[in-house]
Amino acid sequence: MASQLYHNHEMLELLQNIPDLTWTPGIPDVFKGKTHDQIMNTISPISTQQHIETESKYTKVSVQSAPQNFSWVNARPDCFVESYRQTMTFSCYAGLCGSSPVMTAQAFSDNRCIFGKDIKRKVYNAQYMAICSQYDSSDAKRSSYYIFEHGIPDETCYIDKNLQQYYCPSQCDDKSEIRLVNSSDIIQIDNKFESVLKYEISVDIQVYKDFMFYVEGIYKHVVSDKNPLKGQITVTVVGYGEEKGIKYWIIRSAYGSVWGETGNLNGFHRVGNNGGYMRIARGTNECNIDNIVGYVAAP
Predict the structure, then answer these.
(1) Alpha-carbon Rg of the chain, whole angstroms?
(2) What pLDDT score was predicted for residue 242?
(3) Mean pLDDT confidence for 149-158
(4) Strands 229-243 vs 185-189: parallel, antiparallel or unpaired
(5) Interatomic CA distance for residues 86 and 107, integer angstroms
(6) Using an 8 Å Cβ cutoff, are 186 and 154 in contact?
(7) Which family does it belong to (predicted)?
(8) How far apart are CA 183 and CA 200, in angstroms?
(9) Which domains are seen in the chain, by residue range?
Protein backbone atom coordinates (compact mmCIF):
# COMPACT_ATOMS: atom_id res chain seq x y z
CA MET A 1 0.00 0.00 0.00
CA ALA A 2 2.97 2.32 0.62
CA SER A 3 3.53 2.95 -3.10
CA GLN A 4 -0.15 3.05 -4.04
CA LEU A 5 -1.71 6.40 -4.81
CA TYR A 6 -4.07 7.62 -2.09
CA HIS A 7 -6.73 8.77 -4.54
CA ASN A 8 -8.34 6.12 -6.69
CA HIS A 9 -11.08 6.40 -9.27
CA GLU A 10 -13.27 3.84 -7.51
CA MET A 11 -13.58 6.07 -4.43
CA LEU A 12 -13.99 9.20 -6.54
CA GLU A 13 -16.77 7.58 -8.58
CA LEU A 14 -18.53 6.45 -5.39
CA LEU A 15 -18.52 10.03 -4.09
CA GLN A 16 -19.58 11.58 -7.38
CA ASN A 17 -22.60 9.27 -7.61
CA ILE A 18 -24.00 10.10 -4.16
CA PRO A 19 -27.23 12.08 -4.60
CA ASP A 20 -27.60 15.49 -2.93
CA LEU A 21 -23.97 15.65 -1.82
CA THR A 22 -23.36 19.12 -0.39
CA TRP A 23 -19.74 19.29 -1.53
CA THR A 24 -17.78 18.65 -4.71
CA PRO A 25 -15.37 15.70 -4.66
CA GLY A 26 -12.26 15.50 -6.81
CA ILE A 27 -8.50 15.09 -6.62
CA PRO A 28 -7.08 18.37 -5.27
CA ASP A 29 -3.93 19.60 -7.01
CA VAL A 30 -1.93 19.51 -3.77
CA PHE A 31 -2.54 15.75 -3.49
CA LYS A 32 -2.07 14.69 -7.10
CA GLY A 33 0.49 11.92 -7.42
CA LYS A 34 0.77 11.46 -3.64
CA THR A 35 0.98 7.94 -2.27
CA HIS A 36 -1.11 6.57 0.56
CA ASP A 37 1.85 6.78 2.94
CA GLN A 38 2.71 10.36 1.97
CA ILE A 39 -0.78 11.57 2.80
CA MET A 40 -1.11 9.43 5.92
CA ASN A 41 2.14 11.01 7.12
CA THR A 42 0.22 14.29 7.45
CA ILE A 43 -2.47 12.71 9.66
CA SER A 44 -1.97 12.05 13.38
CA PRO A 45 -3.50 9.31 15.55
CA ILE A 46 -6.62 10.31 17.48
CA SER A 47 -5.48 12.25 20.56
CA THR A 48 -6.40 11.06 24.04
CA GLN A 49 -4.92 14.11 25.75
CA GLN A 50 -6.74 15.58 28.74
CA HIS A 51 -7.88 19.19 28.66
CA ILE A 52 -5.82 21.99 30.15
CA GLU A 53 -7.98 23.69 32.76
CA THR A 54 -7.87 27.38 31.96
CA GLU A 55 -10.29 30.28 32.11
CA SER A 56 -10.75 32.82 29.35
CA LYS A 57 -9.98 36.40 30.35
CA TYR A 58 -11.89 37.80 27.38
CA THR A 59 -15.52 38.85 27.51
CA LYS A 60 -17.81 36.44 25.70
CA VAL A 61 -20.20 37.60 23.00
CA SER A 62 -23.83 36.58 23.48
CA VAL A 63 -25.36 34.35 20.83
CA GLN A 64 -28.22 36.84 20.42
CA SER A 65 -25.86 39.62 19.32
CA ALA A 66 -23.71 37.44 17.07
CA PRO A 67 -23.91 38.08 13.31
CA GLN A 68 -25.48 35.38 11.13
CA ASN A 69 -22.29 35.04 9.10
CA PHE A 70 -18.73 35.85 10.10
CA SER A 71 -15.25 35.24 8.70
CA TRP A 72 -11.91 36.64 9.83
CA VAL A 73 -10.89 36.53 6.17
CA ASN A 74 -13.38 39.34 5.58
CA ALA A 75 -12.98 41.09 8.93
CA ARG A 76 -9.16 41.27 8.92
CA PRO A 77 -7.75 40.31 5.51
CA ASP A 78 -4.46 41.97 6.47
CA CYS A 79 -3.99 39.32 9.17
CA PHE A 80 -4.84 36.34 6.97
CA VAL A 81 -1.97 36.24 4.52
CA GLU A 82 -0.47 32.83 3.88
CA SER A 83 3.21 32.19 4.34
CA TYR A 84 4.47 29.14 2.48
CA ARG A 85 6.54 28.25 5.54
CA GLN A 86 3.33 28.06 7.57
CA THR A 87 1.94 25.22 5.47
CA MET A 88 2.27 21.48 5.80
CA THR A 89 3.67 21.32 2.27
CA PHE A 90 6.74 23.17 3.49
CA SER A 91 6.98 21.20 6.72
CA CYS A 92 6.77 17.88 4.90
CA TYR A 93 9.54 18.95 2.58
CA ALA A 94 11.51 19.74 5.72
CA GLY A 95 10.81 16.23 6.99
CA LEU A 96 8.45 17.45 9.69
CA CYS A 97 4.96 16.47 8.62
CA GLY A 98 2.15 17.23 11.01
CA SER A 99 -0.53 19.87 11.01
CA SER A 100 -0.56 20.88 14.67
CA PRO A 101 2.67 22.94 14.93
CA VAL A 102 1.87 24.48 11.54
CA MET A 103 -1.68 25.54 12.37
CA THR A 104 -1.03 26.59 15.97
CA ALA A 105 1.88 28.81 14.89
CA GLN A 106 -0.24 30.21 12.07
CA ALA A 107 -3.12 31.01 14.44
CA PHE A 108 -0.64 32.62 16.86
CA SER A 109 0.59 34.84 14.02
CA ASP A 110 -2.96 35.74 12.99
CA ASN A 111 -4.21 36.42 16.53
CA ARG A 112 -1.25 38.65 17.37
CA CYS A 113 -2.13 40.64 14.26
CA ILE A 114 -5.84 40.77 15.17
CA PHE A 115 -5.06 42.01 18.69
CA GLY A 116 -2.50 44.56 17.49
CA LYS A 117 0.45 42.89 19.21
CA ASP A 118 2.36 43.11 15.94
CA ILE A 119 1.87 46.24 13.84
CA LYS A 120 2.11 44.10 10.72
CA ARG A 121 1.48 40.35 10.68
CA LYS A 122 4.65 38.41 11.47
CA VAL A 123 5.34 34.81 10.55
CA TYR A 124 6.09 32.73 13.65
CA ASN A 125 8.13 29.64 12.94
CA ALA A 126 6.29 26.30 13.08
CA GLN A 127 9.40 24.36 12.14
CA TYR A 128 11.20 25.64 15.24
CA MET A 129 8.41 24.31 17.43
CA ALA A 130 8.36 20.91 15.71
CA ILE A 131 12.12 20.50 16.18
CA CYS A 132 12.54 21.95 19.66
CA SER A 133 9.48 20.32 21.21
CA GLN A 134 11.05 16.93 20.50
CA TYR A 135 7.92 16.11 18.52
CA ASP A 136 5.67 16.68 21.55
CA SER A 137 3.44 19.04 19.59
CA SER A 138 1.15 16.51 17.98
CA ASP A 139 -2.18 18.13 18.84
CA ALA A 140 -3.67 21.57 19.40
CA LYS A 141 -3.32 21.45 23.17
CA ARG A 142 0.35 20.43 23.17
CA SER A 143 1.29 22.96 20.50
CA SER A 144 -0.55 25.77 22.30
CA TYR A 145 1.13 24.82 25.56
CA TYR A 146 4.56 24.85 23.88
CA ILE A 147 4.11 28.43 22.68
CA PHE A 148 2.96 29.48 26.17
CA GLU A 149 5.71 27.67 28.06
CA HIS A 150 8.70 28.03 25.70
CA GLY A 151 7.88 30.56 22.97
CA ILE A 152 8.76 30.53 19.27
CA PRO A 153 10.74 32.96 17.09
CA ASP A 154 9.43 34.89 14.14
CA GLU A 155 11.11 34.52 10.79
CA THR A 156 13.10 37.74 11.04
CA CYS A 157 15.13 35.74 13.55
CA TYR A 158 15.19 32.18 12.28
CA ILE A 159 14.59 30.46 8.95
CA ASP A 160 16.16 27.13 8.08
CA LYS A 161 16.71 28.03 4.44
CA ASN A 162 18.16 24.66 3.52
CA LEU A 163 15.43 22.66 5.28
CA GLN A 164 18.11 20.45 6.77
CA GLN A 165 18.50 21.65 10.35
CA TYR A 166 17.17 19.07 12.80
CA TYR A 167 18.58 20.46 16.04
CA CYS A 168 17.09 23.19 18.20
CA PRO A 169 18.88 26.47 17.36
CA SER A 170 20.16 28.76 20.11
CA GLN A 171 20.86 31.70 17.80
CA CYS A 172 19.07 33.68 15.15
CA ASP A 173 20.30 33.43 11.59
CA ASP A 174 22.45 36.54 12.13
CA LYS A 175 24.15 34.83 15.14
CA SER A 176 22.38 37.04 17.67
CA GLU A 177 20.63 35.46 20.66
CA ILE A 178 17.42 33.77 19.64
CA ARG A 179 14.33 35.89 20.27
CA LEU A 180 11.39 33.84 21.52
CA VAL A 181 7.84 35.16 21.82
CA ASN A 182 5.48 33.46 24.28
CA SER A 183 1.72 33.47 24.36
CA SER A 184 0.20 35.25 27.35
CA ASP A 185 -2.15 32.40 28.22
CA ILE A 186 -3.64 29.12 27.02
CA ILE A 187 -7.36 29.50 26.55
CA GLN A 188 -9.55 26.41 26.44
CA ILE A 189 -12.52 26.98 24.14
CA ASP A 190 -15.79 25.20 24.82
CA ASN A 191 -18.11 27.51 22.86
CA LYS A 192 -16.54 28.04 19.46
CA PHE A 193 -19.55 29.95 18.09
CA GLU A 194 -19.06 32.78 20.58
CA SER A 195 -15.29 32.62 20.81
CA VAL A 196 -14.48 32.72 17.09
CA LEU A 197 -15.72 36.31 17.10
CA LYS A 198 -12.72 37.09 19.32
CA TYR A 199 -9.93 34.99 17.85
CA GLU A 200 -8.92 32.16 15.55
CA ILE A 201 -9.22 28.80 17.33
CA SER A 202 -7.07 25.67 16.93
CA VAL A 203 -8.99 22.38 17.01
CA ASP A 204 -8.25 18.73 16.26
CA ILE A 205 -10.80 17.20 13.91
CA GLN A 206 -11.29 13.60 12.88
CA VAL A 207 -10.44 12.83 9.27
CA TYR A 208 -12.15 10.27 7.07
CA LYS A 209 -10.79 8.98 3.79
CA ASP A 210 -13.07 11.22 1.73
CA PHE A 211 -11.74 14.39 3.43
CA MET A 212 -8.78 14.32 1.05
CA PHE A 213 -11.17 14.35 -1.92
CA TYR A 214 -12.69 17.70 -0.89
CA VAL A 215 -12.67 20.43 -3.55
CA GLU A 216 -15.41 22.86 -2.51
CA GLY A 217 -18.81 23.09 -0.83
CA ILE A 218 -20.06 22.25 2.67
CA TYR A 219 -18.35 19.05 3.74
CA LYS A 220 -20.17 16.17 5.42
CA HIS A 221 -18.34 12.87 5.53
CA VAL A 222 -19.93 9.99 3.64
CA VAL A 223 -21.02 7.08 5.82
CA SER A 224 -19.63 3.99 4.09
CA ASP A 225 -17.41 1.02 4.90
CA LYS A 226 -15.22 2.34 2.07
CA ASN A 227 -14.73 5.61 3.93
CA PRO A 228 -12.94 4.69 7.18
CA LEU A 229 -11.73 7.05 9.90
CA LYS A 230 -8.05 7.78 9.25
CA GLY A 231 -6.97 9.85 12.26
CA GLN A 232 -6.95 13.56 13.07
CA ILE A 233 -5.48 16.82 11.85
CA THR A 234 -5.31 20.23 13.47
CA VAL A 235 -7.22 23.02 11.73
CA THR A 236 -8.27 26.49 12.81
CA VAL A 237 -11.82 27.82 13.00
CA VAL A 238 -11.98 31.28 11.41
CA GLY A 239 -15.72 31.81 11.04
CA TYR A 240 -19.16 30.40 10.42
CA GLY A 241 -22.24 30.89 8.27
CA GLU A 242 -25.32 29.37 6.71
CA GLU A 243 -26.20 28.54 3.11
CA LYS A 244 -29.51 27.12 1.88
CA GLY A 245 -30.43 26.10 5.40
CA ILE A 246 -27.13 24.33 6.09
CA LYS A 247 -25.05 25.81 8.90
CA TYR A 248 -21.28 25.53 8.61
CA TRP A 249 -17.93 26.36 10.16
CA ILE A 250 -15.19 27.96 8.08
CA ILE A 251 -11.91 26.22 8.82
CA ARG A 252 -8.36 26.80 7.63
CA SER A 253 -6.10 23.86 6.87
CA ALA A 254 -2.37 23.33 6.67
CA TYR A 255 -2.54 22.19 3.05
CA GLY A 256 -1.90 25.66 1.67
CA SER A 257 -3.61 28.06 -0.69
CA VAL A 258 -3.93 25.63 -3.61
CA TRP A 259 -6.37 23.53 -1.56
CA GLY A 260 -10.02 24.22 -0.82
CA GLU A 261 -12.00 27.44 -1.01
CA THR A 262 -11.35 31.14 -0.41
CA GLY A 263 -12.88 31.45 3.06
CA ASN A 264 -14.39 34.77 1.91
CA LEU A 265 -18.07 35.39 2.67
CA ASN A 266 -18.42 37.28 -0.60
CA GLY A 267 -17.75 34.10 -2.61
CA PHE A 268 -16.50 30.74 -1.44
CA HIS A 269 -15.56 29.44 -4.86
CA ARG A 270 -11.95 28.62 -5.41
CA VAL A 271 -10.01 31.45 -7.02
CA GLY A 272 -6.48 30.73 -8.21
CA ASN A 273 -4.15 30.34 -5.23
CA ASN A 274 -6.42 32.07 -2.72
CA GLY A 275 -7.76 28.89 -1.12
CA GLY A 276 -6.74 27.04 2.00
CA TYR A 277 -10.19 27.06 3.59
CA MET A 278 -13.08 24.63 3.91
CA ARG A 279 -16.69 24.82 4.98
CA ILE A 280 -17.73 21.95 7.23
CA ALA A 281 -21.26 21.26 8.50
CA ARG A 282 -22.04 22.87 11.87
CA GLY A 283 -24.44 21.54 14.48
CA THR A 284 -24.18 17.85 13.56
CA ASN A 285 -20.74 17.24 15.09
CA GLU A 286 -19.18 16.55 11.71
CA CYS A 287 -15.68 15.12 12.23
CA ASN A 288 -16.20 15.80 15.97
CA ILE A 289 -15.75 19.53 15.36
CA ASP A 290 -18.74 20.63 17.46
CA ASN A 291 -17.88 18.55 20.51
CA ILE A 292 -14.09 18.86 20.57
CA VAL A 293 -12.53 21.48 22.82
CA GLY A 294 -10.47 24.11 21.02
CA TYR A 295 -7.37 26.00 22.15
CA VAL A 296 -5.94 29.47 21.69
CA ALA A 297 -2.34 30.43 22.37
CA ALA A 298 -3.45 33.87 23.47
CA PRO A 299 -1.52 36.84 22.06
Answers:
(1) 18
(2) 93
(3) 89
(4) unpaired
(5) 10
(6) no
(7) Belongs to the peptidase C1 family.
(8) 14
(9) 23-47+63-298 (3.90.70.10)
